[in-house]
Amino acid sequence: MAESSQLLLVLDLVGTFAFGLNGALTAVRAVRLDLVGVLTLGTMTALGGGILRDVLIQSLPPATFSDLAYLGAAAAGALVAFFLSLPLERFTVLIVVFDAIGLSVFCVTGATKALEFGLGGVQAVLLGGLTAVGGGTLRDVMLRKVPTVLVSDLYAVPALVGAGIAVGAAHLDLGPLVVAGVAAPVCFAIRMSGVVFELNVPTAPGRGSREQD
Amino acid sequence: MAESSQLLLVLDLVGTFAFGLNGALTAVRAVRLDLVGVLTLGTMTALGGGILRDVLIQSLPPATFSDLAYLGAAAAGALVAFFLSLPLERFTVLIVVFDAIGLSVFCVTGATKALEFGLGGVQAVLLGGLTAVGGGTLRDVMLRKVPTVLVSDLYAVPALVGAGIAVGAAHLDLGPLVVAGVAAPVCFAIRMSGVVFELNVPTAPGRGSREQD
Amino acid sequence: MAESSQLLLVLDLVGTFAFGLNGALTAVRAVRLDLVGVLTLGTMTALGGGILRDVLIQSLPPATFSDLAYLGAAAAGALVAFFLSLPLERFTVLIVVFDAIGLSVFCVTGATKALEFGLGGVQAVLLGGLTAVGGGTLRDVMLRKVPTVLVSDLYAVPALVGAGIAVGAAHLDLGPLVVAGVAAPVCFAIRMSGVVFELNVPTAPGRGSREQD
């Protein structure tokens, strides 16, 4: 159990750092915000999903506030993105990759924490998905973009699949390392396949292709 | 009391289904999202108001998560809208009607649940209003529209009136069926009158007509 | 202690009134909403930060709902702005000033309430900042503007400085009047200096000036 929560913390911090990088990078590219704006958007992206999760399972104050390592990881990610933004921006794919890392890790930690707080299996899967997509949705709303979770092919789906694997593995009493070691990579692989191969989930019958902006 | 919470649940599910339909229909028409996007926006519209209510009265985890019937009703509404979107879209008025049904039911259930959790009368009216307008506001923010509650004539007002009737009737110890049977139709009637007759509440003195988009 | 919470309440109401004025004034100018829309946006701006704070420290139902004075102060501010909007709009600076007053007061009350609920010093500073910028961020999202906290020079910084002074003074056991009397004016002075002198915090290296809208 102690081992489990250790791993949960480490994974949470990895996801927080990745989303901090992603949010800050997005901010620099989309709006060219100043240092405070970049830090703010980076930390909101990084911490938003976890805060939402903790509010809904009533784990308050949120881990973000009770353990300062979260804020540190988020800020570190945002600062790295801010100061390295010029070279990094050549690699647009990095934004997508960091987002996919955060997504993959948070769907597992969200689902696992929900189980620990006594929620049922299906609910834990949903909460894992919410944790994974929450921060990025907040980021997009703040930048006035239609949220990725609405328009992107395979964004919510891999998060729910990852959370589902995590819940299934937990029911089989597999160790936490196994749970995370399978669920997160599967989520990551599905998400990146969607990006690379531009896979689509079906649109409403009789409709042409989606109009994005 | 058991009868009351039975009725509350049924009404909540009706409102959830109606908002699921409305959110998904709005999504298909506004952005032509894919299946996952439509399901996501439909369920967010359907569940957003109730989650907000449950967080604020500390009924956690929210009913949405503890009782899967909510998710089922929301997803059912969204799926119906998705697969029937082509014929349905001819009837623009249906979007408004489903929204009005959700509004009318949620103002009652929100106010009633707030009373059950010990809030005062005025607070229960406010919370009923918040429950009713919460999901639609989330929907509009996600689609980058100025929320209906800000620009629409008679949207918050009927919700508050409906919640007020529900609270008043509860203080008079009328049965829950009477409460809902009066409050929800009154809210619905006011809302639809506003739509049909384009009734306006006054704008700031010395101003021309509102500019919407 | 009783003195402290008395002062906290008075300050909270002052901030609520100021943000109610600000939110309503912004609404009238930006979208020319009707009376209900102006009231709604005014109260959301005024109450959003405090509700966010109370959810995160689990002081539920939020003070906004348990003490109706908050709603009264918010609505009073919004109504004043609505009926005086024509003469007031000549003084654009008033919008900024009311916003700065709300910011300065809420960073202090947010941090102080967080300390009273047992949060650590750093967390209390963060929560004070969140309380201060929360309502305005909600206002901007509802009106589809990039939130001030992201694009404005010196908005989050003075809020965090004010909260930091409040937490530091509380640790030194200075009386609540001293805490508020120093922290809030310092925050206000920094914020207004930023506005008046157009001070900038640094943007990402190698970048031109920010592009706002």
Could you characterize the architecture of this molecule?
With about 210 residues, chain A is mostly helical. Chain A has one domain. Chain A is about 75% helix and about 0% strand. The first copy, chain A, has helices at about 1-30, 35-55, 65, 70-85, 85-90, 90-115, 120-140, 150, 155-170, 175-195. In chain A, helix 1 (about 1-30) runs antiparallel to helix 2 (about 35-55), helix 1 runs parallel beside helix 4 (about 70-85) and helix 6 (about 90-115) runs parallel beside helix 9 (about 155-170). Chain A starts with a helix and ends in a 16-residue tail after the last helix. Residues about 205-213 of chain A have low confidence and may be disordered. Chains in contact: A-B, A-C, B-C. The interface of A and C includes residues 60 and 62 of A.
Low-confidence stretches of chain A: 206-213
Report Rg of chain A.
17 Å
Given helix and strand content, the structural type of chain A is mainly alpha
What's the tally of helices of chain A? 10
Largest sheet of chain A: none
Biggest interchain interface, per-side counts: A-B, 38 and 30 residues
Query: Can you tell me the number of structural domains of chain A?
Result: 1
Strand content of chain A: under 5%
Total strand count of chain A, please? 0
**Average pLDDT taken over every residue of chain A:** 85
N- to C-terminal distance of chain A: 46 Å
What string, H for helix and E for strand, traces the elements of chain A in order?
A: HHHHHHHHHH
Kindly report the oligomeric state of this protein: homotrimer
Shape of chain A: globular
- Helical amount among residues of chain A, as a percent range? over 70%
